[in-house]
Amino acid sequence: MNVERPQTRIQKRNREAILDAALGVFSTEGFRGATLDQIASEAGLSKPNVLYYFASKEAIYTELLSHLLDTWLDPLRELDPAGDPIDEIVSYVLRKFEMSRAFPRESRLFANEIVQGAPRIIDQIEGPLKELVDEKAALIEAWQKAGRLAALDARHLIFSIWATTQHYADFDAQVRGILKPTDDEHLTAASEFLTSFYRRALTPSPD
Questions:
Q1: Inter-helix orientation angle 104-115/57-77, to 10°
Q2: Whether the model pTM is above 0.70
Q3: By CB atoms within 10 Å of each CB, which of 66, 78, 91, 178 scores lowest?
Q4: CB under 8 Å to 187, separation ≥6 — which residues?
Q5: How many domains are contained in the chain?
């Protein structure tokens, strides 16, 4: 029985450098446009050195996507059935927005994969992701039946949250081209807008 040896500090550092470099290259060039030579150059390593850690470009890409999808779902998992429904969903919106703000490369990488038809993660989308969305949609519907939320299609509500929050990462050039911000003040304005927008949309109409 083979026992996998623990990685040395240098090996861990090199793997992290490769993954970080690949994230930048893939998020800019997409899977098809990215090359191992580009990744090696960005990581400050030789191409053979990269291939020592990963068997192929696809192996690097698949590992990035696997970790990313799991991280991306954490905010949705945190919806608390015991919490106030509007507060819980608005908090989810803001967590998703902050993730897009803090990890724009990751958001663009995920968007590129979806645009291509999600060939490398379709099993995860149709499996664990669908199961989680179904679970949280059922929670939202229970809150709606109790009169604690406006009657909105739960799954389309979740889709809208993904769209409105990730837009600021995936279409950053468009947003900045229109708004011409001097820094990141537009992101503060966006956070305030999303909070107000979803609070109003989620609040039940008075009888």
A1: 110
A2: yes
A3: 178
A4: 101, 168
A5: 2
In tens digits, what is the pLDDT along the chain, a chain of 207 residues? 444 567 788 888 999 999 999 999 998 888 889 999 999 999 999 999 999 999 999 999 988 988 888 888 899 999 999 999 999 999 999 999 999 888 888 888 888 888 889 888 899 899 999 999 999 999 999 999 999 999 999 999 999 999 999 999 999 999 999 999 998 999 999 999 999 999 999 999 886
**What is the span of the domain harbouring residue 37?**
1-54
Q: What are the backbone angles phi and psi of residue 82, rounded to the nearest 5°?
A: -85, -10
Which residue has 């406006």 as its token pair? 150
The total number of residues written for the chain in this structure: 207
Indicate whether 36 and 69 sit together in one domain.
Answer: no
